[in-house]
Amino acid sequence: MGRDVLILAEHLEGKLAPSTLELVAKGRELAAQSGGAVKAALLGHGAGALAQSLADHGLEVLHADDPALSDYTDGGYEQALQALLGALAPRLLLIAHTSQGYDVAPGIAGRMDLPLVTNAVDVRLEGDRLVATRRLLNEKIQGQFEFASDRTFVVTLRPGSVKPAGLASGGKVSIVPVAVDPSRLRTKCLGLERPQVADIDLSSADIIVSAGRGIQKKENLPLIEDFAKLVGGVVGASRPLTDMEWLPKTRQVGQSGKTVRPKLYVACGISGAMQHVAGMKDSGLIVAINTDPSAPIFEIAHVGIVANVLQLLPAVIKELKS
Amino acid sequence: MPLNLVVCLKQIPNPDLQFSVTPDGRDIRREGLNYKINGSDEYALEEAVRLKEKNGGRVVAVTVGPKRAESILREALAKGADEAVRVAYDDPAAFDVGKVARILAAAVKTLPHDLVLTGVQSDDYSNSATGGLVAGILGLPHVSVVTKVQVQGDGLQAWSELEGGLQRRYSVGLPALLSIQFGANTPRYAPLPAIMKAARVPIKEIAPAALGLASWEAVALPYAFAVRGLAPPAAKGHAEFIPGPVEEQAKKLAQLLREKGFVRR
User: From the first residue on, what is the mean pLDDT of each consecutive set of 10 residues in chain A (322 residues)?
Assistant: First the structure.
């Protein structure tokens, strides 16, 4: 068993995912605990410049180039990672808990019979043990879970859990010969599709008033709209509301929707699941209104109001109009 | 093309409840909790039933869990599953997703399967790991966070949701596993006669012996797992709360919005 920590770089259309630099930071911390080095695996095709830009953060980037790796597929990545893990036997493989991470991390752990922990907000090594901190049950419970193994730990780290690594010297790109056998690939990527935008662009709004399940009925949306109008804002939503089609998909704030950074964000009846918080936590001023004082939204809000939004907003509108 | 569909379901405590931790810190207090079918699993079930209705075939609903989990299997039967299987792993907490997935994979292996469906994540432990693990263990191609699926030739087309609303479109050979995203479809309500009929359908039970195991403790794992402890999370941030009755809170908020220049009049 080696001591290195291998991170898996995620990239799309020639850009590194922001979470990759968070993995570099966390990987460095873990490598110090294991007594090895942090290295990155960048799987792709014609992505040499990207590999170099990652190496500019002060780590060795193992770059595997193969036409079958030009888009993410489970099979291509699993073949490449199997070869890399076989050669390197790292102490730990660190992957971002993103849509792609949900697929590749358990896939490789299942295929290679490796210990796996996902969606960790923190992780550390203690000898042959890995201790992961995870959030459960709508963020209401935090747990520490211990895994003892002499095999490579596969870990996914929740985006936003650590500060991304900055530029640093000492990095380099090493080309690793990894051949993917295309005849074994059962999944093929046919292309990327973008949602049709015929609606306002939330990400350019200065003020967003978002509604969540706490508004209870679609009929209460005009209340949110009235308030948004008074503060010169637009209406956003948490995932359940767009799933129920109370508002179009373009209004969804969160990991699977828009990432926004307005000057003012008012969360109305939103509990603050990580899915949502990931898309708005960097807003200038966050005001949260929720009946549950233990709702996780209050952890990231600057101003909290424990109240029923359906009672509070009419009173606020009255105040603002007087 | 008729499909043998297996849909994996999980019973979870209603996540809107308040939770507290047992004195030994190893589990949540479970007395008085009410349980339900996991959110995204409802969409996986609906997708399975729709694929059957369109292409022919059978839907088998599987869960790994204690006796109480039979209620979600009855729900699945009422909504169109043809057969229900409970893998009788009785650990009420089941924090070790790797162990549950290995048990589930062993059970799925005993069932005919062209397509295995799971929800994208469980709303209690939020691992998003079960589907990928089962696929990896069984050597199935897999696509996660799927919002749309169509039979195409002798395989499938599946749309996978990425961050920011982008979708990747894949072709996938069968047999395969897909994890289904929230909102992928509109789950149906079960009609009353179907609910009554489902109540009488026998549920098949899989014990360790049926999977060639002496006991659930005999599941081979590449690691030793332990719960170190559970606790309410230490509040990271600290919203400054506006106290008082609603009128008071409204007045303060309006004042704050004015002071910060967010009011246009």
Answer: 95 93 97 97 96 97 96 97 96 97 98 98 95 92 96 95 93 94 95 78 89 94 92 92 88 86 94 88 92 90 94 93 86
**Residues A231, B169: C-beta atoms closer than 8 Å:** no
ipTM of the complex: 0.91
Task: Identify which has the larger pLDDT, B172 or B237.
Answer: B172
Contacts of A143 in chain B (CB under 8 A): 95, 227-231
- Asked if A15 has any chain B CB less than 8 Å from its own CB, the reply is no
How many Cβ pairs closer than 8 A exist between chain A and B?
A: 296
B122–A contact, CB cutoff 8 A: no
What are chain B's domains? 3-218 (3.40.50.620)
Helices (H), chain A: 18-34, 48-55, 74-88, 99-112, 221-230, 239-243, 274-277, 297-300, 309-321
3-state secondary structure of B159: strand
Q: Which residues of A touch B120 (CB under 8 A)?
A: 102
Residues in Cβ contact with A307 at an 8 Å cutoff, skipping those fewer than 6 apart: A289, A290, A291, B246, B249
All CATH 3.40.50.1220 domain ranges of chain A, comma separated, are 202-321
> Is the CATH code 3.40.50.620 the one for domain A5-184?
yes
Spatial contact of A290 and A306, defined as CB atoms under 8 Å apart: yes
Judge: B101–A110 Cβ closer than 8 Å, yes or no. yes
CATH class of A202-321: alpha beta
Whether B239 and A301 lie within 8 Å, measured CB to CB: yes
Q: Considering CB atoms only, which of A72, A105, A187 is closest to B132?
A: A105
